[in-house]
Amino acid sequence: MTTIVERSMGGQREAAVEGAVYFPRKKRGISPRSIAIIAFLTICAAFFCVPLYVIIITSFKTMDQIRQGEIFALPTTWTLDAWWTAWDKACSGMNCSGIKVGFVNSLEILFPSLALSLALSSVTGYALALWNVKWAGTFLFLLFMCAFVPFQIIMIPLIILTSGLRVYGTIWGIAIVHAVLAMPILTLIFRNYYKGIPQEIMSAALMDSGSFWKIFLHIILPMSGNIMIVVLILQITSIWNDFLIGLTYGGLGTQPMTVILANVVITSTGEVSYNQNMAAALLTAIPPLVIYFVLGKFFVQGVTAGAIKG
Residue 302: what pLDDT? Predict the structure, then answer.
């Protein structure tokens, strides 16, 4: 029979159970299901990481070591010559000014594209979510359909449109096309986010004689920090990594970094400089990666705050 023994030690009471039988909990091992998931995720990670590893180490090698064919071997002599050449001296056709020209062009394309797309889509999403807009359901359905229209179908009409506006081949022409193509999906994202705002806030604002723009600028916009970060990251990645729009609507002096990179890769003078090509590819990929590292935490917060619900 189990008994409880109490004793006093240093003014403290201790209790011990005599005759109790303890069964230690068995340690749970890794189940076959967990092993399968880990193996699958490892394969997926290797699928992306192994090529990236080869690109990185190749960019630090000399051409003599690259010719040995040991693509997985670390450089015997680490050098940044390929990086400096790709940035400052790589040839894109007849122009040997490096990919820094494309970097500047991409920045000039990025800022007006972001300004146009975020301004237009946030206002339309706000109107569709919080105001009784006539034919809002039909308009929302059309936006949903337009989000899945392939770009190649509307390429020629957009060329005619930008030519009529006299912006074809300019930075603003590319920015307008990016804003037009982003409008459907961004409007849906903003609309779903604003749907989560309590109607009482809108009612109180209307009672205070708030107009459409006053409510948007003084109430809605300050509450949109999380969703703005989400859309910002999505747009920066999309615009910076774009190739077809920049190639189609950009002129000779307004081509983005991706187009310059493609020209650098296909341009050769006697031999293919693999280390230079790899360095140029990494230089092109670094800006969106930096954005993800800096704003990644806010991106998750924005998504969980309702960016894709509704």
Answer: 67
- Per-residue pLDDT band at 27 (split at 50, 70, 90): low
The mean pLDDT value for 142-165 works out to: 86
Residue 149 lies in a domain: yes
Per-residue tokens: 222: 């300050």
Range of the domain at 171: 100-307
Cβ–Cβ contacts within 10 Å for residue 184, how many? 20
- Say if 115 falls within a structural domain: yes
> Of the residues 79, 114, 147, which one is the last residue of a structural domain?
79
91 within some domain: no
pTM: 0.78
Distance from C-alpha of 194 to C-alpha of 125, rounded to nearest angstrom: 7
Confidence of residue 15 (pLDDT cuts 50, 70, 90): very low
